[in-house]
Design goal:
The chain has about 350 residues and is of the alpha/beta class. About 45% of the residues lie in helices and about 10% in strands. It has helices spanning about 20-25, 25-35, 40-50, 55-65, 85-95, 120-125, 150-160, 180-185, 195-200, 225-235, 260-275, 280-310, 310-320, 325-340, and strands spanning about 70-75, 100-105, 135-140, 165-170, 185-190, 210-215, 245-250.
């Protein structure tokens, strides 16, 4: 989505300018403008989410009536397998169906400065002028699991803004990048021939979260062997009657080949989720994880306030001296938190 000026180049007097929207703290206005397709309002809302702004509870409350309708698709895999190229082509296919699409592309950040190149958005310039596509790069800011800590709430922003499909592309760091499975309705794991994925197929980790396997760069030597390895791994898995069997799709995303097959596999998985009431269950699990994460964040803030005082220091001194055990001290610390809250 690009910033657009009203006909004639003028901004209506009762509407804030683009710069005004980017700085606005009027949550109802931002939500209304985002639902109208204003990319600046969407960007502002996600910025409030990423920064952990004090307005975040208001943002979440204002968006709540409009969330839960979008299809969330996660894409993960090792660096170099073509995640961004595949995402770019999937956006094209979804737009051809008339869907409004949001993309959250998580990039790794420096462990020293926290900065990130945010190069995934650069790779998706084909859709930069499409008002039906919103692309946002996010820095992981050291968060493990392949996503940024703010990604779940950013997904809610895009859902609330009326996106029919939200694509979440992970950092691309390796086997531990499994957090996307708890966020997405459908998880795509991308593989490529000659990148060691045949060995990964028999190991626990990232491959176990896939609803759909995409063997990208399938025009390379070794593609057939990679497909066989993945199919063999799937065959070894224990599944009860009616359980989902992961699909294996070949693609050459750089040439747009196999994208329709990927979209068809996503559709098939979506239909299975609905038929078996798994979509509701997954979303309830996702919501529980969000609530838990927010509660733990509040708890950590309260722990921080205790750390600044003398309570935690005194408990730590007793544990270090062998006068108390860490579990007992933790219990006392929680009691202090309860007393602090009741004041």
């Amino acid at each position: 989505m690009t910033e657009r000026t009203p006909p004639g180049g003028a901004t209506p007097a009762d509407q804030p300018s683009g710069a005004g929207v980017r700085r606005s703290r009027d949550v109802p206005l931002l939500v209304r403008r985002a639902r109208e397709g204003d990319p600046r309002a969407m960007a502002r809302l996600i910025t409030l989410v990423e920064s952990g702004d004090e307005l975040l509870p208001q943002v979440a409350a204002a968006l709540a009536p409009y969330t839960g309708r979008a299809q969330v698709v996660g894409l993960t895999g090792s660096p170099g397998v073509g995640k961004s190229t595949t995402t770019n082509e999937l956006v094209r296919a979804l737009r051809a169906r008339g869907h409004r699409v949001g993309v959250l592309a998580v990039d790794p950040s420096s462990p020293f400065t926290g900065g990130a190149i945010l190069g995934d958005r650069v790779r998706m310039q084909d859709h930069a002028t499409d008002p039906g596509v919103y692309i946002r790069s996010m820095s992981s800011r050291g968060h493990l699991g392949g996503l940024a800590a703010a990604t779940p709430q950013a997904v809610r922003v895009l859902e609330g803004a009326g996106c029919d499909v939200v694509l979440v592309e992970t950092v691309g760091v390796g086997q531990a990048e499994v957090e996307v499975a708890s966020l997405a309705d459908t998880t795509l794991v991308l593989l490529a021939p000659g990148m060691g994925d045949a060995i990964q197929a028999v190991k626990a980790g990232i491959l176990e979260i896939a609803d759909v396997f995409v063997v990208n760069k399938a025009d390379r030597d070794g593609a057939d062997a990679t497909v066989r390895d993945i199919q063999g791994m799937i065959a070894l898995g224990e599944r009860g009657p009616g359980q989902w069997r992961p699909q294996v799709v070949r693609a050459v995303a750089a040439r747009g080949e196999g994208i329709d097959d990927i979209a068809a596999a996503i559709d098939k998985h979506r239909a299975w989720l609905v038929e078996h009431d798994e979509l509701r269950r997954r979303r309830e699990v996702r919501a529980a994880a969000e609530v838990e994460a927010i509660a733990l964040g509040v708890l950590r803030e309260r722990m921080g306030s205790l750390r600044d005082g003398t309570g935690l220091a005194a408990l730590a001194a007793r544990v270090a001296a062998g006068e108390a055990d860490p579990y007992g001290a933790a219990g006392e610390l929680l009691d202090q938190l309860d007393r602090t809250r009741s004041r």
